[in-house]
Amino acid sequence: MTLAAGLGLGALIGVLLGLLGGGGSILAVPALVYGMGLDMGQAIPVSLIVVGAASAVGAIPKIRAGQVQWRMAAMFAAAGIPATIAGSAVSRHLPESVLLIGFAVLMVVAGVRLLRDDGRTGTACAVRTGKVNWRRCIPRSLGAGLLVGVLTGLFGVGGGFLIIPALVVLLGVEMSTAIGTSLLIIVANSVAGTASHLTGVDVDWSSTAAFIAAAMVASLIAGQVGTKVDTARLQRWFAYLVFAVAAYVVVATVVGG
Fold it and tell me: TM spans, by residue (predicted)?
């Protein structure tokens, strides 16, 4: 992993994060594997560091604005952290080709979700007073947290493309609060996943730091520009890019295998 490659690819991922939110990180692992020559064992923890750092930066203004559902975030994290650790343990014992094909499938799911984002809001956890019906919310939150945690541990993704629709469509959380809550959940899962994956892995920390720094700076700049961009159109084109990269991952894995 060279310093120049770390800066360039980090900036690219940062732009996607700034324009699209957490969903942009779905390309971090392919960028690290195919753009920087890392194997999956190295790419997953580096991806999680980038995702966690970007989410922490993005969560700060949401916390200040009060746009976080702390109790729901805690439930997701309570289920997600052990699931992330378990997913990390499984990931270390799977062949790289299996992980790459699984990641490609996950990318297709993410792309479909981006194309089908119709702005629906659920009411499963809400009551008419505006308070949360925790009796109904707890099992749904724990189940969603488990799923996201396993995927975070297995593939090094933050899972924002699953957390946000779970919060909005399944649980009935307002979008602004769902984004802030999702960022906190991603930070917690990313920390757990990074700690699990770093054991016995040799990481080039100088290039990793360059990747993270470039991603953070580019994300902040793109976040400002993103307010003037047609988000719906950008999301569609990003979904097509995700499909293309997923196809490349499958072909490269099959041919290379």
Answer: 44-60, 72-91, 97-115, 144-173, 205-225, 237-256
Distance (Å, rounded) from C-alpha 184 to C-alpha 245? 28
What are the structural domain ranges in the chain?
Answer: 3-256
Q: In angstroms, rounded to a whole number, what is the distance separating the alpha carbons of residues 257 and 241?
A: 24
> What is this structure's pTM?
0.80
Helices 3-20, 231-256: axis angle to 10 degrees equals: 140
Q: Which two tokens stand for residue 159?
A: 């899972």
- DSSP class per residue in 47-58: HHHHHHHHHHHH
Residue 132 pairs with which residues in a beta bridge? 126
Q: Which amino acid is it at 93? A: H
Structure tokens at 4: 């120049």
**What's the pLDDT tens digit per position in 145-155?**
898 899 888 98
For residue 244, the surrounding DSSP H or E stretch is helix 231-256
Q: Is the CB of residue 188 less than 8 Å from the CB of residue 81?
A: yes
- Alpha-carbon distance of 130 to 20, in angstroms, equals 29
